[in-house]
Amino acid sequence: MQALLVAALTATAAIGGASPGRADEKPQLEAAFHKMYELRFDEARGLILAYRRAHPDDPLGAAAEAASHLFEEFDREGVLTSEFFLDDDRLLGGVQGNPDPVRRAAFLAANENARSMARERMKASPNDPDGLFVLTLADGMEGDFKALIEKRQLAGLALIRRAEKEATRLLAVRADAQDAYMALGAANYIIGCLPVYKQVLLWFGGVRGDRRRGMEQLQMAAEQGHYLRPLAKALLALAAEREGQLDRARTLFEELAREFPANPIFARELALAQKRRASIRPPARHVVVVSRDELPASSRLSLENARRECG
Q1: pTM, rounded to two decimals
Q2: From the DSSP assignment, how many helices (H) and strands (E) are in the chain?
Q3: Which domains does the chain carry?
Q4: What pLDDT, in 10s, does the model give residues 125-163?
Q5: 287 near 275, Cβ under 8 Å?
Q6: How far apart are CA 115 and CA 134, in angstroms?
Q7: Which residue of 81, 153, 185, 247 has the fewest CB atoms within a 10 Å radius of its CB?
Q8: Is residue 18 within 8 Å of residue 177, measured between CB atoms?
Q9: How far apart are the C-alpha atoms of 202 and 275, rounded to whole Å?
Q10: What digits encode the pLDDT tens for the residues 16-71?
Q11: Residue 38 CB-density burial (10 A; 0-12 exposed, 13-18 middle, 19+ buried)
């Protein structure tokens, strides 16, 4: 199984799932995620650790810490760039080399802590939206890590399928948890990009992909999401480039670069999108000139009538 299957939840891995509550209910975490989008990971973790000390029973704090480590690893490997996303060989083959061992250990420890806390929370209420949110995030992140970073694709796919089911359950109990569409949309789009024979193999395992539906779901997360909104917009822009929708991609990267001027990736992707758009020339128009005598009799009559009508 190729790493492309895992890229379907790359965004979930970076900052997955949807907070069932409003983002402004947790301003420290909101600020931490903003730092992540600016690639200021150490500062983000400082805010997250402060939040965890103040809210030791909230599994979202541990999940956010895990997300900061994984998102930093993805940034190091250039996963969320057009060079990676538009290159089928890289998207199919995954990253080169091994992860940073310290970052790997920190990610796995924080992620397992988040999962355990969420499961404990759901013992009293199996459909607790906060617990479902964190489980969606934790399983999506670890699925991405196993398949895209460690290249254990089968193990990663199993976790990704579980994260999709959890996202669906979350939306069933909290329809306004729009960030959950990040996991669903990314999976739908990327799996839909696979060659047909690979999609057939996945169909036997109950996995489906739909590029158009995936982009619609990414659009919902990009417009109405909380923590995932900018990430959904970035992935939607990259998907638009793959689909040849260069004006749409440019607009999305313009918005991201304006919102996060400290992030050089968004500015660079905007410049690349503009360059790709400018390189496309409109098709040449060929004009054929014929004399009046070369026209058929009926066409000459129509031409004379048109001239008389125009004076």
Answers
A1: 0.77
A2: 17, 0
A3: 4-283 (1.25.40.10)
A4: 999 999 998 998 888 888 778 777 777 766 777 777 788
A5: no
A6: 7
A7: 247
A8: yes
A9: 36
A10: 444 444 444 689 999 999 999 999 999 999 999 999 999 999 999 999 999 999 88
A11: middle
